[in-house]
Amino acid sequence: MKRIYIALALAGIIAFAVLADAGMGGMDVKDVRGKMGKLLRLKRHVREHMWNNALNQTREEGILEYVNGSYYINGIELYLGNEWFMNSIARSDYDGDGEYEYVWQELEGLVNTEVVINGVLKGDMLYVSHINGIWYRIPKQAEIEEIQGILEYVNGSYYINGTELMIKRGFSKSDIDRDGSLERMTEELNGLLGDEIKVDGIMHDGKMIVFHINNIWAR
Question: How many domains does the chain have?
Answer without folding.
Answer: 3
